[in-house]
Ferrous iron transport protein A (Paradesertivirga mongoliensis), 71 residues
Amino acid sequence: MKLSQLQPGQSGVIKEFTDLEMSIKLMEMGCLPGESIVVERFAPLGDPMAVTVSGYQLSLRKREASTIILQ
C-alpha cells in the first residue's frame, strides 16, 4: 500500500520507495525504512497532506507520498 492511499488517523511502517531520486530527499527528511508514519490531515483541496514521522510533522504532496510503500 502507498502512503497516499491512507486516510487521516491511519498509520503504517515505511518499507521502500519507488523513485530513487525522491527517496533520497525523503530519507533526508526522516522518512527512513522501518519508521512508523501517521497521516494527520489533508489540506482543504486534498493536497498536500500532513504526516508525523520520526517525531515531527512533515507536509508531503500526494505525488511524493505515492512513492512511499508501506508494510
